[in-house]
Amino acid sequence: PRIVLFKDTSGTDQVVRALHQAGAVRWLRGAEGDYQQHLKPLGLYDGFLLSTANGFAPQLRKIINDVAAGASAQAVTQSAQLTQLVQALFAHAADCQIANPFANVNRAVDHVFAYGKAWHAAPLPVLVNGERLPREFLAGVAERLEQAGFAIDTGYCDSAAVA
What we know:
Layout: E1 5-8, H1 14-19, E2 26-29, H2 35-38, E3 47-48, H3 57-68, H4 72-93, H5 101-115, H6 135-147, H7 159-162
Parallel strand pairs: 1-2, 2-3
Helix pairs in contact: 3-4, 4-6, 5-6
């Protein structure tokens, strides 16, 4: 087959609904939110290709595993929590008028997870245009992560966390 993988970021899922039985194509959803309802066997997608996957890989993996195991209540809860957080982060990114808002969120999430509460002491992430993400934007991301229950006391780059 010429097409072996198809990613739909539209959020409307029209292509997958029309062609989901088309041969050996693997369907990946690129639109954020309501993750559990779109995965097979509940939905039509084989998996995700998301901008937030680097920052929230453990949470997405848990949703995928819960759906596969038939633990739909757990998947729904986890999916709702992650959806709410991602929506809040993307809404916050709308106020940051430089570069790509999705990339800004992902850089900021990774920065906070890398340095924990010491994120402000580390060099701020550099964007493709050479500018740095604004400190205020990063502070808002860190605040939203904490409000969502993420422990950011230490980061994965912290020497104590790595040891």
